[in-house]
Specification:
GO terms for molecular function: DNA binding; transposase activity. By secondary structure, the protein is α+β, with helices and mostly antiparallel strands. The protein contains 18 helices and 22 strands. Among the domains are: about 80 residues, no CATH class; about 60 residues, no CATH class. The radius of gyration is 30 Å and the shape is globular.
Length: about 550
């Protein structure tokens, strides 16, 4: 039913969407929920009215329908003309509705409870003050839940959830919050946080890129992301602990700068914030950083390191692995027993420039089987293409010549081809092989392998950081907002990781995901009676189990009658 004599100004809010029909009529829909299905963003919308023919001082207005009053919990007009299909116009009279004042508090209380347990709230208050710390925790909780409804829904979240802030945070206030977060205050926080979470733990480091729509900002530059796509982006380097898998520190820099080129600058910033004040750190990094200058800088900052040694790092590494595989039963071969396979390993002293390291070479039977199958499929595919092709372009000729001797005439027409037997045999021998550099002599090859494989925590953190929290886009319009938004997303990542660490045993038993657990916690609501808050209903079995696991101070008493 449409209230045709009521006109409401159309708010300047992206959640209010105009949909024009073929007959020329324009309807107003409100975006109530956003989510992703197979990586694609989907929206749930509610029809709340129709655009009127009259504007108020140049501002568009619309006639609301009953969905508008029901969704926003606004009393219906006492006397109003109602237009409905097939119904006569009639007067509607209603009594003033009593405000329910129901607040969702289970999830946000869980976030505050876990922040208190790990002293995260104290560190934020010490760095930013109580009011701003509460705002950061509120927005970080919103981000950690996946920003339900999109970033423009922050006002709805802080209004409907118990967030302990002075007021509801609007989209405009959120932008102001980004700009209010200074680097000095963040560094004060990092000094306390690093001291808390880095003792007696190895640190892994990796870099990701986050795209941004605006290309006019100095920090945003065209560069290639991890999928080799050229996009305007900001690079973000992040440290994580290996054992607790907690984010430690992040640094953002221009999107066109190489990862290994910026490593010494990131190390210097992290060192200034106390990354090695208590104990020397062991840096765990992938093969992309296996560059002499970058590793020299890591050692100059007092870091031991475990780093991937790509077989194409230099010709000598490849030869070392091949020589070992030609004599697999040599005396220095070690067997590492895993639950599903037995990995062979050989260790040799190795120098990278002035750095003395150990080169650890491994061969995994499971990886061998997988790599050999991929190689066989690849060779068969190229052979078939060479048989069916009449001529080759320069790029394909260069690519296929790595594995095949190809004879062509002056017109680049294929005369004959045959596989390079020696080269193919070497590649086959290297299937399932990988190598690591390590500067710590107190670690066994098995311990080094376990630590290196555990570094995927930073890759998983980046996946959550980019996909679940930032939706793959930074979406800021000012240079000052970049660091502030990344900092809040970083706090959100800490909260989400803490929740996951604490709930992981329960999630495995109950076979639900973290997002499902967050949704169940968010469904715990309370109602205000006078000066006290009481639950609106008893908790479900899973809600009680989640509350008990997280040790949230919630009473299980039912709502009071009367």
């Amino acid at each position: 039913m449409l209230y045709t004599d009521v006109s409401i100004s159309l708010p300047n809010d992206s959640r209010y969407e105009l949909h024009r029909q073929k007959k020329g009529q324009t309807y107003v829909k409100y975006r109530i929920k956003s989510y992703r299905v197979d990586g694609k963003l989907k929206h749930d919308r509610l029809l709340i009215g129709k655009i009127s023919n009259e504007d108020i001082e140049g501002i568009k207005t619309f006639h609301p329908n009953e969905n508008y009053y029901s969704f926003f919990k606004i009393p219906l007009p006492k006397v109003s003309t109602v237009k409905g299909p097939g119904r006569p116009c009639k007067d509607i009279s209603t009594a003033p509705a009593r405000k329910a004042n129901i607040t969702s508090f289970g999830y946000t209380l869980a976030c505050h409870s876990i922040a208190k347990e790990y002293s995260l709230d104290v560190m934020l208050r010490n760095a930013f003050g109580e009011s701003m710390a509460n705002k950061i925790l509120a927005v970080a909780s919103f981000f950690a839940a996946g920003a339900p409804g999109g970033l423009s829904n922050i006002d709805h979240f802080t209004d409907k959830h118990m967030c302990f802030t002075d007021s509801v945070i609007s989209s405009q206030a959120l932008s102001q919050l980004y700009r209010s977060i200074s680097l000095v205050e963040c560094n004060d926080f990092f000094q306390d946080w690093i001291k808390y979470c880095c003792a007696d733990d190895c640190i892994c480091y990796d870099v990701t890129s986050i795209s941004n729509y605006s290309t006019s900002l100095p920090m945003v530059a065209w560069g290639y992301n991890r999928d080799k796509e050229r996009l305007p982006q900001v690079n973000v380097g992040m440290f994580c602990t290996i054992q607790r898998k907690l984010p430690v520190y992040f640094s953002c820099y221009n999107g066109s700068i190489n990862d290994f080129t910026n490593l010494p600058y990131v190390l210097e910033q992290a060192k200034a914030n106390g990354l090695k004040l208590d104990v020397p750190i062991t840096l765990v990094i992938d093969g992309g950083f296996a560059v002499g200058d970058a590793l020299d800088n890591a050692r100059a900052h007092g870091c031991d390191f475990i780093v991937g040694a790509p077989l194409d790092f230099c010709k000598d590494i490849r030869e070392q692995v091949l020589n070992w595989r030609r004599n697999p039963l040599s005396e220095n071969t070690i067997l590492i027993q895993r639950s599903d396979e037995t990995i062979r390993c050989s260790v040799k002293d190795y120098n990278i420039g002035r750095i003395n390291t150990r080169l650890m070479m491994y061969k995994s039977p499971l990886s061998t089987s997988r790599d050999e199958a991929s190689l066989s499929s690849y060779v068969s595919k190229i052979s078939e293409e060479l048989r069916s092709a009449t001529r080759l372009g320069p790029n394909r000729y260069k690519q296929y010549s790595q594995l095949f001797h190809i004879n062509v005439n002056e017109k680049n027409e294929i005369l004959s081809f045959e596989i390079k037997e020696k080269h193919y045999s070497e590649i086959l021998e290297l299937c399932g092989c990988f190598a690591l550099f390590c500067t710590r002599n107190d670690l066994s090859p098995q311990e080094v392998l376990d630590i290196y494989r555990a570094k995927d925590c930073v890759e998983k953190a980046f996946s959550v950081f980019k996909n679940d929290i930032l939706y793959e886009r930074l979406e800021v319009k000012s240079q000052e907002s970049i660091y502030g938004k990344l900092f809040i997303a970083f706090i959100a990542l800490i909260i989400r990781r803490m929740l996951d660490n604490k709930l992981r045993p329960y999630l495995k038993i109950s076979r639900i995901g973290l997002d499902s657990a967050i949704a169940r916690l968010s469904d715990i609501t309370c109602r205000k009676y006078g000066e006290s808050w009481v639950l609106t209903s008893s908790l479900s079995k899973q809600q009680k189990e989640l509350v008990e696991t997280l040790n949230i101070p919630i009473s299980f008493l039912d709502i009071k009658k009367g």
